[in-house]
Every structure is written in C-alpha cells, then in structure tokens.
Give the backbone structure.
Amino acid sequence: MYGKSIELFLVNGTADSLITAELSNWNGEAIKIPRTEVLECNRNDIKGAGVYFLFCKEDDGEDAVYIGEAENCLDRLKQHLRDFQIDKEDYYWNAAVVFVGRDLNKALIRYLENRLVDIARECGRYKVLTKNTYKKTVMKESQIASMEEFIDNIKILIATLGYNVLKAIPQATNDTKYIYCKRAGALATGFISKEGLTVLKGSKVSENIADSFIRRSKSYYNLRNQLERDGIIVAGVFQKDYEFSAPSAASSVVLGRPSNGNVEWKDENGIILKEL
C-alpha cells in the first residue's frame, strides 16, 4: 500500500467550520459542512452532483447516519433542513460530508449511494437511516471499476475527517493475541484493536443486569440495549464481531454491570490486561 497525500483546507480558519479535503491525482472533493452553515452557503463545488452523509446522534447516544445522493448536493442539504422543520424528517443531523466529482452523473451517484449504504450497514458502526436506494442502475464494467475506486477514496477521506462509518471491524489474524472475559455466566473472547477492543462472534454475555449498571454506567447499559436491538447480540450471544471504544465498554456490556476492563480482560494464563 502506497502513501497518500491529502490536502485539508479550513475554509474559515477553524476546524469546527467548513473543511475541504482532496487527494492528489483525484478529481473528487470532500466538503464537510456544519448544519448551522448550510443555509448561508453558496459555494459552487458543493452544488455539484455527488453523494452525502448526514451525521446524527440518536436520543440514546447512538451514532447514526443518513446517506443520500443528489445532482445538486447543496440544494438537497437545504431541502433536508426544510423537511425537518415541517416534520417530514425526525432525525437531527449536526454535520454533513459531501463528495462531488467532475464526471459524476445520476446513474453514477445512484450506484455510489447504494454501495455506500450497503458498506455502512455491513460495518455496523453507525445506525443507517437511509430507507431505500435505487438498485437497478445499469453501468458498464469500466464505470463500475471507476466508481469502486471513487469509493476507496471516500473511505480514506471520510475517516480522515473523523468518521469511521465505512471502516470495517478489525479481523483477527494468525498473530492475534486473544484475551477473555469470564464471569457471572459470561464467556467472551476478544483482542486489542486500533480503535479499542474487538469482541468476537459467538461470545456470550451475562443474562443478569445489575442495578448499578443503570445507575453508574448508563451509557454502556444503553449500548448493550442498542446492540440487542440491532441484532448484534441475540439471545445473549454476539452474532458478529464488534469493536468497542475501550476495554471497559466491552467488559461492562459482556458482564451486565460496571467493570474495569483492564482487570476483567485476561489472557489464557490469567494475566490481566493492564499487565500484558
């Protein structure tokens, strides 16, 4: 894998305002724009055809995203604001990330939208709010190859802008060192990954939920409930690998109570995580 050169431009001089991001030797562009700046925006680049991500926080704290396509992305973002005002949409997004390109047309952006929605759902890091996508786009083989390369670049730039919505859950390798969380009927296997700790498919969580879990670790309690609603935990068993942001988040969800992941996770010899 070769290195990549990315140019980030803070349009208004601050990181919490409009940002553009470009890769060298690529005709696409990413534009991150806060919700509060959309109505006053009049940039020509964001008026192009492309795909966009609307990033939200659900009431329970879960990350959510709406992925869409438009022939004029700025007009579409403004339409989302109007739809929210008249209750046609019930999610409140804080920031949008738009991807435009010189050669994009309706067929290509429909293809991109469909693929990006599928990838985001497969990754499972964000709740995907997009209901339907157009799946009957007919494209030449060369166009598909070009759009898959476009998607690869979207993955790089959207992660650079701080969103892991298209980042796959880390996979174990032959060199992976496993750690275990065993207590109160729970038996989970995991490993330390770049973003935290990944719990493996087939891991079993405790059936019991401690009262203190709700009182002292409500965010982790809500996370466990969300994983059950999303089908990641079914009948007390992980149905797929899932990456937690920290060892304590993983152990608390597994044990159904507040816990210190640096102590609860141990290797096969019983050595606790903080001593490994």
In short: Residues 179-275 form one domain. The radius of gyration is 21 Å. The mean pLDDT is 93.
